[in-house]
Structures are given as C-alpha cells and as structure tokens.
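2 proteins. here.
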Amino acid sequence: MAIEILPLTKEDIPSAVACIQKAFADDPYFHWVFNNKSGFQPYHINKTKQSHEQFNIHRNAASLAAHFLYGLSCNEPIFVAKYTTNTPSDKIPTDSPVVGVCWWYSPQPPSEPVPWSVWAQDWILSFRQLYNNIRFGGRGGLNVRRYWLWKARQQETHDRVWTDPRGYYFCNVIAVDSSMRGMGLGRKLVEVVSQQADREGMPCYLESSKGFPNLMIYEKLGFEMVSEIECVDGKDKCKLDTRLYWRYLAMISNLPNKVAFGSDRAILARSLLCFLKVRPYIPKIVTHNYQFTFFNVSFHLIDHLPLVPVLSMIRGKSRFTKYIVAAFASYIILTLLFSGTGGKYWKQDWVRIARSTLEDRALEHIQNETLGFEHIYAIGLKERTDKRDFLNLAASIAGFRVEWIDGVHPEDMSEKALLNDNLLAPSEIGCWRAHMNALSNMVQNSYSTALILEDDADWDVNIRQQLREFARGVRALTRNANTTKSAPYGTNWDILWVGGCASSAAPNETQFYAIPHDPTAPSVDHRGTWGGPLDSWKENYPETSTRFIYRADMGCCTYGYAVTKRGAERILAALAVDRLVAAVDNSMADMCGGKDGRSQIECYAPFPNIIGTYKAAGLASKDSDIREGSDEWHEAQAWNLMYSTRLNIHRLVAGRDTVYAQYDEGFPWSRRVLNWKEFEYPRGYLVS
C-alpha cells in the first residue's frame, strides 16, 4: 500500500476530521477544555445522542470542518497523508483513507495588516460557527471559560516568545492514525512545510499538550522547548510545551546568492570556535544587520536566527578552503570586537560565549579513557577471574581503563586493624577494607577525582552520553560554572553515587535536574523504585520515563561511585579512623544525610542509576562474594539498565551497530533495537 503526502482538498475533509478526532482521543488539553472526561471517540463509532452540556462528537466534527474550509480559503499549508489511488480498494481502511494530517498557518508579520481576504474569511468562519451552535443546540460541551483562559495564556506566550518580526510558520495540528505511528508519517508531514521554511529562512513553532512520546519526537524533528503554558481552573490544570523549530540547510557548499545566519558577531564567533571543534552557546544580542561579500557570496547577517557552524557545512571542500574561511572569520571577529560598535553588549555576550565554550570543552573530557575522572579503580577478589575478565572486556569495549584493587578476605586482616566498635559481619569487613584501600590509594596519589567500580558493575552502551548530561546536571545543581577541562563534573561535591541500588533526596529538597523521556531509563515495572525522587516532583515528571539528578541524602550499594580528593579524605576520616557501625555503603549514606552523628558531606545521584550490576546466567550462589546465595538458577540480568553493555557484549565485540534492550516489550520512549552509534541522548534542565 502506497501513501502520499498531498495538499488537503474539500473531499478529504471528512476523513481528515476523523483522523484528528481519533488521534486526540487521549489528549490532555481536550480532556481539560471539554466538559466530559471521556475524551474523543471517532464520530463514526459514537452515535449516541448527547446533551449540549456534554461533549458532542458531531458538533466538534462540524467545527473542525468549518476550520478546514477556512484554511483552504486562506490558502494555508494543510497537508494529509492518504492512500494513493492505485492502492487496491480492499486494502484501504473503510473508516478513513486519510491517516495523517498536518495543519499549518503561514507567517503573518505583526507589523502588516491582515489581508482583506483573510478578514472576510474570519467573518465567514464566525457565521459558520454560529450556524453550528444553532444546529446542535450549543457549543458541543466546550467549556467556554477554560477556552478563553487558554486563549489568553496562549496569546501571552506568543507575545513573549514570538520575537521574529517576519512571523512564524505555526503548526496548529499534527495527527497520525495510531495504526501508522512509528512509520515516519509524522516526519514527512512536518517536513513538507519545515523544508519550505528552511528555504525561506523562516522559523517554525508548535505547541504540545502531551508529554511522551510527543516531545521526544518533536526534538528529533528539530524543535526545542522555549516555554511552558499552564492553565489553571480550580484544581484542574493543563500544561502545554511550546517549541520553536530552528534548522537551516547546508547552503554554503551550494554557494547561494544570499545566506541568512544569526547575530553578526555571534555567528562569526561560532565559525571560528567550530574550527576549534567546540560548540558554544550563542546568545541573542542587540539586533545588528550587516551585509558583505565573500567568495562572490552575499551574506546578510540577522540577529535572532538559528545558527549553524559554518565549517560543518563546507562538506567536500579542501582543507585549504576551511582554513581560509576560519581565517576570514577570525579577522571579522577581531574587527567587531575592537570596533566599539555595541561594545557594552558585545563584551557581556563574549563572556557568555567564552564561558559556554569552556563548559563544552570540559564536557569533551568525558570522552577520555577515564570518563572525565582522573582515575578509575575496580575492586574484586583476585581469584574471581571470571568477573575480572568480563569487566576488563566490557571496559575495553567502552573505551576506558581501570586499575584493580584486590578484594580483601576478612581472615587476612589483623584484628588490631579493626576499629574498636566494629559490628560488621566478616564478609562486610572485607568489603569495607577493599573500599578503604581504593580511597587510600587515591589520596596517596593525589588524584583530584576517581571513579570506583565493583567487579560486577555494568553500564549502558552509551554511558559517555549519559555521563555528559549527568555532569551538566551536577554542575547546575552545585552552581559549579567555572569548570576546567580536567574536571567536567566540577569539584564542589564529595560523592557522585552514579551506581547503586537506591538513592533518595531529602524531603525538603527543592531543586533537581530532569531528563524527560530518557530512552535508557527502564520502566518502573523493571527496576527498583526504592527511594528516588520526591512525590511532588513526579507529579509533573513521570518517574517511569524521567531520569532525575538531585542532591542525595541516602544511597545504597556501591556498584559504582565517584569521589573527589576532599570526599575521599572525609570518608577515610569517618570510616577508617573514627568508627564503623554499619556496612560501608550504609555508613557512606549516613554521611550523605548527616545522620547517626556523622558530619554531612555533599552527595549527588541520578535516579535511576547510570551504573548497575550484572549477574551472569547460572546459580545465584555465584553472584555475590559478600552474601551467601541460593542454588536457584537464573537468566543473565543487568540491574536497572535498558541497553546493557554486558548483555550485548557479543554484538559489541563483533562491531554491530545495533544493540537489544533488556526487556522484550517496547516503551513509548525507548526502542527494542537501538542503533547505539547514531543515538543522541536527550538534554535535561534544572527545575527549582
């Protein structure tokens, strides 16, 4: 069956209406703005008579049809995905040949008057809606108060974020039939207009009232969230995310007559910095317009437009050409810096650019062979060669190296070396001593930071991308903006509890860093949920698809954790010199929370954890060297991980591009099969 993307026609309107009503059946906005809470049902299914106080599917269909006629009369870009005419009739669904709709409004500069033809269509639409009110005996269950509350909040948002004087392509509705989702129809529908916007150098805008998977899909299409609209009516709330779309084609390599870029100084600064292989934040600054010619190309520099690194677009050109462009960009930057034009604003923005450049360069350090830390230790008994071999292999595949710290048998320790009030079991004493040995070695070598792993540690195949965003979150929470290349996580902390079976935030904690729709986060049905984010946080950020980063006052299990030199010294002073009354992880947790008479230290943790633990297929008695296990046999498993390195080890060794999720069922925010080499981890943000 072939499906085409075609402009809407009058004949398509009934099918397009049905498609929208089906797609928006569970949309939060429509549940909020219409009186009944059952949501939409397709008009060809729901035939029951409804009163004017409740949602009327037929009244809604008539309203949508009136708006479609309005759009056609105003020549708005409205497209549908529909089965082609050469598709056999028995293969076309009987309910609707239209399986997707994308409804746009063209840009309208606020400084220009509304065309008389559009003005006339506004009146015609009003009369059609009045007729529908009479015909159906009301507004079909529309909560008028909430509707106008929403329109007011929407207008406030547009006034704030619509800063481009040329206007925006506004994606009013995008709907894809549930049977066709995941087949790329949404992307094709959007790109019909977004590619036209690219050619015109125009921005696009949309609003979404549904969290996942919509926001993740829109991000893949190039949209970035710029604002959140919240409508509150009594106890009921409705939230919508507003997103702007910024994308430009690689136009320099095609040498067009005019190329639109971003702010004059900012884009040139980015050109040079891109040559240095960094990706700085480019601020929006006071508008300046310049025009100049270079290589017979006329450049018009406009503020508030999206930015694309110049050199990344010169594909297929010689190295000499790239050097020429970089040298030219350097010359323009220096000229603008010292010309005095807008000097006050430019100095402020240059500081921000430089600061962001340093941040991005610091994050690049996570790509090194110690994951951005100064050293990595692995703890394990020397005789457990099975665990050592596997961890060495997994680390090699991931591209980092470890130094082994031998595990300790309690019988090999002198009783004189134990603290006086020790209450631990013998196996727990050996575990404690091994971790103290790692911390002591770190202090002895004056490592500024170190990551400590246990021999059964496991991690996601994209751990570097996870750690990069984790570092950004930690720095945001610790306000550690002035980072160095050797400290991408900052240094204003003692423990980063990246790998454990649990962690939690203090009840009075107000700040956290959220990474919504994280494809590497397993569903709560498949991971431990002890501890974790506060209930108030989960009201707006679903626990099942969000990775949280927060200041932790508790942690448990030591599959993997990082310490600063300061943190290592504090732990040694408390647990190797002072007293030891609980297992090493519980004692460290007491320090994080300032409990049991411990001085509080600075701890931060992700939830779910980034580093988990692996259990090979076999008898449970082989899993732990601290606690006795049963003789029950179990499958291979990776705690709290979606795309486990160890579970995919044979594919990774073979150089495969794809890996498998640990769980058979797919989640809306994840994939069963992932191309890990093309994977892009989502960006998070600070919530306070």
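next one coming up
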Amino acid sequence: MDIDKMFKLPKLPASAGQKRKMPDNPNPEYLKKFKFDEAAPLSQATDEPHVNGNGKGKGRQVTVQDEEMEEREERNAGGGGGGGGGGGGGEVEDFYDDADDEGRFFGGGLNNEQEQILNIFDAAGEGEDGPVLDLPALRRQLGKFERIVTKNAEQRGKYPDDPSKFIESEADLDTSLKSFLPLTQNPPLFYPELVKAGIIPILSGLLAHENTDIAVDVVEVIRELTDEDVGEEEDAEGGAEEEERASKTRMAIGQLIDELLNNSLLDLLVSNLSRLNESEESDSQGVFHILAVFENLLSFMPPLASTITSETSLLGWLVSRLEKEGYDSNKQYASEVLAMLLQEGREVVLRFAKLDGLDKLLQVLFQYIKKDPGDGEELEFMENVFDCVCTSLAEPEMKQEFHDSEGVELMVMMMKEKRLARTRAIKVLDYALQSPPGAPSCIRFITASGLPTFFSAFMGKSTNKSKNRHLQTSQVEDEEHLLGILGSLFTNLESDSPERIRLIAKFVEEGYAKVERLLELREAAESRLAPVKRDIEDEKKTLKAEGAVEEEIEEMEVEWYLRKMDAGLASLQNADYVLAWVVMEDDGAMTHARLLLSRKGMNFKNVSSVLRELKDNIGDDEEEEGEAAEGEAGGAALQRMILEQLIAFLEGL
C-alpha cells in the first residue's frame, strides 16, 4: 500500500459533481427554450428558426394561434339567441376576460413579459402529464421524429440554396428534438426503446447537421439524457425497491452511452467545438452543453478519459481554450473537464505533456500574482488550474518540466504577494519538491530566495493582502503542505551543501523559534488525532467482543489508518520527520527540543514511534509498472532507509 501516492493526488474540482441548473431568476429569453406546447402535434409546430443562406439559425420567432378568441365568438353567437340581455352578457364577459384591454383595472395586473413567464411555468406544470408516458406513445413519437428528419434532409438536399423551402421542416425538427427531454422521467423504460428503434444513429447524424442550432439541440438532448442526476430521487429515497430501480436506471444510461459511443459521439462532439463561434450567444451555450456532456461521460465512466484523449483532440482544445484572454463560464468549465481528465492516470498526463500543457497552465496562472479572481466562479477556475498542475506533478517527468518552465520561481513570487494564489502556490510546491525527481526544484527553491517567504508563512506571521479572506484555504491544510515542503527539502538536499546549510540555519536563528513552532504544529496534530484513535480502539474492542477473526480486523486496519491520516496523522508524521532531521543536524536544536518535549511529559521515543508507523506503511504497492513506478519505488526505498537511520538515532538519545 503506497500511502504517499494515495494522499498526494489533489481532489477533483469542487464543482465537479455540481451540475449546472436553471438560474433562480431566469429571464424570458432563457426560458423560451424550455417552452413546449404539448397540445400541438409536432407536425403543426410553428416555432421556426430564422435560417440564413448557410443554414445557420440566428433566432426564433413564435406564432401562436389564439383559440380563446374563437371560443368567445362561439359563446357570443350562442348567447345572441337570448336577446339583448344575452348579447350584453357576452360583451361583459369579453370585457373582463380581455387582460390586454385596460388590464390595470380589470385584468390580472400583469404586463406581457410577466404573463409570458407564468404561461411558461404553467406549461411546464402541465408537462408532468405529457403525452410520452408509455411505450406506445413513445413509439409514435419516434416514428414521427424519423419522418421529420427524413423530410428535412430531402428538402435540404433538393433546395440547398433556398432556406425558405426547408425552414418549416427545420422548425418541426427543432420542436421534435425538444420532445425527447421528458424521457428522463423513466430511463429504464424509455432508453432501451431509443436504442432498439435505431434512434441513436439518427441523433448522432444530426450532430453534423448544417444548421448548428439543430446540432446544439441534439447536444442538449444528450446532455439531459446522460445527466448523472437522472434517477437521483431513487438513490436518495433508499429501500430495496428504490435501489433496484436506481440500478436499472444506471444500466439504461450505460446502454445509451455505449450506443452513443458506438456512433462516433466523441468525434462529433469535438468537431462541433471547432465549428461553433463562441462570440454568438447560441453557439457559446452550445459549447457549454458539449462540455457538460463530457462531464457526464467522465462522471459515469472515468476510464473513458484515456479514450477521449487518445482518439480525439479534446485535450488540445481544452488547453487552448484556457489560454484565451479574458474570463467566461466556458473557460471555467473547460478547466473543470481538464481536471477530470488528468485525474485518470499517467497516460493522460503524458499526452498533456506532449502539448506543453504544464508550461501553458503556468502562463495562465501568471495573472494571479498581482490580482485575485474577480468572483467565486473565477476563483473556482483558478483552483481548477492549480489542481491540474498538482495532478500532473504526480508523474516524475512533469517535475522536470515544472523545473525547466520556471514553475518554482512563479510559485515563490505568488507566495511573496500574499494573495489568494499564495496558499495554492504552497500546495503546488509541496507536490513539485517530492521524491528524487523533485530534487532539482528543491535546490531552485533555495536559490530563488524561497526560504524567507516560506518561513514567514510557516511561522504564521504573513498577512494576506486579499480582501477575500473568506475564500482562503483551511489553515490545517496549509500547515500540512508547509510541513510537506520541509520534509522534501531535508530529503532531497545533499548533506553539507550550501542549500542545506541555509535551511538548517533557519531553525537555529532567533533562539530556535522555528523548532518551537514545529512542536506547536506537532501538538496541534496530536490533539486532532487523539479522539479518532480512541474511537478506533473502541471499534476494535467491539469487533473482538463480537467474535471477529484476525483477518477481519486486519482488513479494517487500512480503513482505520486512512481515518487517522485524515484526522491529523499525516501532519504529525511530517512534523516528526522534520524534527528528527533538525535534532540530528544541530546539537543546540536537539537540546531545545528535548526540553520542550519533557514539559509535555514526552521524549524522543514518542517521535520515533510515529516515524516507525510511517516506515511500516511506505511502499507496499508493487503492482505498477513503467518509469513512474520505478521512480516511486526508488523514492520509497530511499525514504525507508532514511527513516531507519532517523529512528535509530532518536532511540539512542
């Protein structure tokens, strides 16, 4: 079990599991696309996209036939037989019913925009009892959809230069695609029918439609059908029946995704990224939906990252998108998808390296030396980029690229400026300096004058210039990364080298103040860890009392160890590792540390016991292959050897 590897990968972006939903206060333009008149058959739809010569839809104009006027005329005609009184009653009824005439006295008091919004929500409410609730209705709808697609293709082929000839069928196609959205109500019933009826190849083909508005409609349908929140209600409710239904829902989504992948979904999505013009609002939304589909796919099938990065150009598109000037939601979403891809292993990271991805991300981060992100969404973007850098640094080749791209200098500059990027820069340095491949960056860190700024943060003296202090990272996490950097410096800097001597001198100056700070961090970590250790001991006693065999207890040991690491053991191990090095290097530091430990009723044997547990949990995973595994194995062997020497020294004091 390689605990180092297990804990040195950054988490997925905070928003990775948070799907983008409709805004709390949607404007009318945003709501138009959700309006679906289920009373009208698809062939009679009048929602017609405006089409120019190249088939590009630029907007929609809706024409609605007013059936209420006809009903009032019929009532008036029927009432006329009753004489003047009946006719007068009809006129009075018309007068009160007409909300557009003198509405401020007799109508609902709503303007046209407010009425439109209410009508849309009314239609959405009625949609709960829409026509597609059983298989026969779905099959009729699918048959109609196929006829509409065929008609549109025929008209476009026959009159390619005359949009007026195919505009009606294009409007029908647009409306017909919207009718797929309610299918998420029952995936186990409806999704297999889509596959069986051969609809998936048709949808995939429409992704290459000449009118990009139609292609975007298809992307939106695929996004909704593959959303990981589909069937979430069953998961949340619990119970055997709900679990079975949730399982069937996942199977249905999986079947749908497999069929989409078999019909070139990935290539078609990426090709649409290239042909959409984000300067246009509709196309920008299309890019957003495409990125959402990739997020859905990666959430459902994480290993798909290898296929996506090897068979499409998405990785290059994402990197290029992050390099563009300015900031927008699509840029943030691109950073999120990139972070998800890089999490899925060495192969993806090495493909990223071939694109000079790390160097380009460092250039993206350069802007945050002097300024903070403009809002919470941009902060999320910045954190995603930092996470991408950290993930890539898990591979030894990327540590060298980080060094060659002057990443160390950039992080030191960010630490000096003390803005929101400062603590994220400390995290990056923790990853960059680890293991033997990080040794060159350790030397560079010292020569780039990183120690003064580093120890300012270590001592808790630095004042953050950022006005958004509530957006800073947690103090415990920051302290863990600071201790990690110190551990890497002591491991990688050669004995008696100028850089190592400068490091030791920092612990000696100011009356060993930094040794005292080290023991403060150690005590804080022990305090966080103590209650968890008590809980684990109680659980062990309970298991033994219930007759658990030794094998069952051993299986739980891994889980218990991980819990302790999260609770503070990782920080405690790092603090004791650094403390052991300091007392070994300097007799004055040893004397001072012994005095401080004795005041707490402890001695160096307490430190050595922590290091022994660390040594026993290093480098157990021997299954990986390749250069990365060899580098990690060499680093693990070196660390075990160092720990053995430190333990022997401490136990001899």
